[in-house]
Amino acid sequence: MADSRGEGGGCCPPMDLFRSEEMHLVQLIIPIESAHLTVSYLGDIGLIQFKDLNSEKSPFQRTYAAQIKKCGEMARKLRFFKEQMEKAGVEPSKIPNPQADINMDDLEFKLGELEAELVEVNANDEKLQRAYNELVEYTLVLRKAGEFFSSAHISAAAHQREIGSRQSGEGSLETPLLDQEISADSSKQVKLGFLTGLVSKEKSLAFERIIFRATRGNVFLKQAAIEEPVTDPVSGEKVEKNVFVIFYSGERAKTKILKICDAFGANRYPFSEDVNKQGQMITQVSGRLTEMKTTIDAGSLQRNSLLKTIGERYEQWNSLVKKEKSVYHVLNTLSLDVTKKCLVGEGWSPVFASKQIQDALYRASIDSNSQVGSIFQLLDTKEAPPTYFQTNKFTSAFQEIVSAYGVAKYREANPAVYTIVTFPFLFAVMFGDWGHGICLLLATLVLVAREKKLSSQKLGDITAMAFGGRYTILMMSLFSIYTGLIYNEFFSIPFPLFAPSAYGCRDPSCEDSTTIGLIKVRDTYPFGVDPAWHGTRSELPFLNSLKMKMSILLGVAQMNLGIIMSYVNAIYFKSSLNIWFQFIPQMIFFNSLFGYLSVLIIMKWVAGSQADLYHVMIYMFLSPTDELGENQLFPGQKNTQMVLLLLALVAVPWMLFPKPFLLKREYEKTHQGQSYAPLPSTDESAELEAAHDGSHGGHGEFEFSEVFVHQMIHTIEFVLGAVSNTASYLRLWALSLAHSELSSVFYEKVLLLAWGFNNVFILIIGIIVFVFATVGVLLVMETLSAFLHALRLHWVEFQNKFYEGDGYSFIPFSFALIDFEEE
User: Do 383 and 24 form a contact (C-beta atoms < 8 A)?
Assistant: First the structure.
């Protein structure tokens, strides 16, 4: 196939996208000493998909399980480094670091050292940070509790002075009695203990309530809120907290309070009643805070320096570990030969890649100094090969649209070739407005112009989807401009771009009229819809009729293309049964009804006839022998319709009955006399049995009933689908009408209405509403709606005529693909 690409004679190059690349099953016999390097070189070219020859073994029983475990451990360390760099705001260097090949054992040792050093630095930093946060909280407790105690002392002294002044003013008879009472009370005084600390503000009410209930109210609790959130020493998060002071009596009350503090996560700190000691403690804590801050800053500098050193080499190390791990995964799919000196591998590769693979094997043997070269040979198999299309940045999005429905069967015709044109065109039929198309085009050109920058960035889901389909959207916008010019709509406003309108006023009295008095005064408008149609009473009936008939013509044309593609597939796969009993009856049935309807539509347009096509098609079935009268479009139409109806009726049993019987006869002819064949030897018996199972896909006898039911389902599906699929294309008309009417509503009821108020402020508001409505509804929601409907028309109405889509993708072992994957 590589030669055919080079020759490609004639006027046209070969259509590589039309059918998937030719594949073959290859076998590689690789000496163990060069196996690692060989697989690494094959990963560089990325053109072979290995088969797992050890599928019966668990991952732990395979040859290179230990090496994969080692690579997994190195990958874990690299993920740890990445998390730490993200926390510290250190970006890994994107510039490749030129360096000689790194030995994996040295890298493992290096990563282990760096991890141990980073873990130690983190642990020290965590301890210092926790101690620092505790000192900050302690400072707050000293200040708030000190304020509380000083205010309490002041109020107590004032209270004592008040009592003293009151006693000095009393009579002498009462004085001895009061003295005795006071002395008696002073003898009963109890020493109170207290606790200070901080508790979360949101838990403070519950904290106070629980302490009150646990001590039966025998406590005095005072709380003071801290203005700014503080960093909690345990969690490291910013939390709003209250400083509390609890006075209690007795050890039992203290024990309960301590347990409640632990339960609520309240941090307790010692506090002295002595004012002098309070000042000393504040001074000591402030000094320790300064020292701690200096130590933490020095540790952070050391940590950042270490992370920058790692960041310079991170990408290189990460890529190397990923590649190494993938190489060992592939080596685990290879099987050891009986001598245990070679590894045997099998895999699918494109035919054109044979020379590249052989060159890689040869280079690996030379570079690894292997005394024995690797062997490359082809294997015969009846297994279906994988499907591989070579796409570029333009065609890949269209191929993804097709593959999302189902991966093409090996070498079957690829709908993506036609989807490149038909998909954006059908979208544009529903989205036709050249003003909206230009907006879409400008947005897409931004993505195309910045594709190099955006392709190297990590994008969000929606942005990544739009960027991946940028060329699809580009085609959609160009076709939308084209169909918008045909509809003559620019944000629903018509413009006489190509010539003046063909219609003019019969007399001066109709100058301001858009509904009556117009006659044809010039040649027909050369391209698209005449601008005079817009705004007339007959605009909607005219455009409805035009777009509805156009939708049917486009649908019949695309479905005919799908049926013709089934013929192309049948020719390629040499299936005469599919040609005679699928393609021919399907073409006859479909075109006898809907192909004939399309011809009638064109004839009606050409002749300018007033024939009612609804009446013609309905009575073609109900009363085929009745005269057509004024609905007749050409001589002999009645006889033609009877012949077409007869052909459609004949085509149904033609599709249904012959194929199952012919398949049964073919099977019997192929297997005739096999029951009386001589018995093979024991060694050959198992091989023939396996070959027989493989050739028949694992099925036993030919099940005629199953084949017949299958054929009947396909026939019913096609007959009913011919009607429903044609009706489904009317969505082109419906969405085009909806888009046009929404655009008219936004223009007339928002922009023109705001203009009519002759107020600048209202006009600005109207323009803003119009822009947001146009972008949000017409350029986003309508784009998505038209995209989904175009997708459905391709998947259901077009592709089901020929596309099986039951293949599986070619997924080669390639380092280029691994680099984009997340661990």
Answer: no
Cα–Cα–Cα angle for 539, 541, 547, rounded to 5 degrees: 95
- DSSP symbol at 273: S
Query: How crowded is residue 35: how many other Cβ atoms within 10 Å of its Cβ?
Result: 24
Contact (Cβ atoms closer than 8 angstroms) between residue 415 and residue 799 = yes
**Interacting residues of 641 by C-beta distance below 8 A, sequence separation 6+:** 596, 616, 620, 624
* Residues 503, 506, 508, 513, CA torsion sign: negative
According to DSSP, residue 413 is labeled P
Phi, psi of 520 (to 5 degrees): -80, 120
User: The tokens of 37 are what?
Assistant: 């390097």
Contacts of 804 (CB under 8 A, 6+ apart): 406, 408, 409, 412
Output the six-digit token pair for 543: 């455009």
Instruction: Enumerate residues 6+ apart whose C-beta is below 8 A from 146.
Output: 275, 278, 282
pLDDT at 516: 58
The crossing angle, in degrees rounded to 10, of helices 354-367 and 32-45 is 140
Report whether 592 contacts 648 (CB < 8 A).
yes
CB 222 within 8 A of CB 245: yes
Alpha-carbon span 660 to 128, nearest angstrom: 83
> What's the residue count for the chain?
823
Q: Which amino acid is at 106?
A: D
Q: How many whole angstroms separate alpha carbon 105 and alpha carbon 776? A: 57
Question: Token digits for 176?
Answer: 């001895």
The rounded distance, in Å, linking the Cα atoms of 766 and 275 is: 71
Splitting the chain (823 residues) into consecutive groups of 10 residues, what average pLDDT does each group show? 39 67 95 94 95 91 92 94 91 68 87 94 90 89 82 76 69 46 49 86 90 87 87 86 88 90 89 78 87 90 91 91 94 89 94 94 92 92 94 94 95 95 97 95 95 86 91 97 96 91 73 60 89 85 93 97 96 94 97 96 91 91 89 92 96 95 89 52 38 42 89 95 96 95 93 90 94 93 96 96 94 84 47
Q: Cα separation of 599 and 619, whole Å?
A: 17
In 3D space, the residue among 254, 812, 215, 796 whose CA is nearest the CA of residue 558 turns out to be 796
Alpha helices by DSSP H, listed for 89-203, are 104-168, 175-187
Pairing assessment for the beta strands 193-200 and 241-248 based on DSSP bridges: antiparallel
Buried b (16+ CB within 10 A) or exposed e, 765-775: ebeeebeebbe
Place of tokens 């590769």: 349
Rounded to 10 deg, the angle between the 637-656 and 704-728 helix axes is 140
Q: How does 368-404 read in b/e, with b if 16+ C-beta sit within 10 Å?
A: eebeeebebeeeeeeeebbbbbeeeeebbbbbebbbe
Whole-number Å distance between alpha carbons of 388 and 410: 8
Residue whose tokens read 């057509």: 628
What's the rounded Cα separation, in Å, for the pair 691 and 708?
26
Place of tokens 């003013």: 169
Sole residue written with tokens 């000393």: 280
Measured CA to CA, the distance from residue 416 to residue 424 in angstroms comes to: 12
Residue-level pLDDT at 169: 55
Phi, psi of 245 (to 5 degrees): -130, 125
pTM value is 0.79
Rounded to whole angstroms, the Cα distance separating 593 from 727 reads 13
Rounded-to-5 percentages of helix, strand, coil across the chain: 65, 10, 25
- For position 341, what pLDDT does the model report? 87
Q: Which H or E element spans position 45?
A: helix 32-45
The half-sphere exposure of 309 on its side-chain side, counting CA atoms within 13 A, is 12
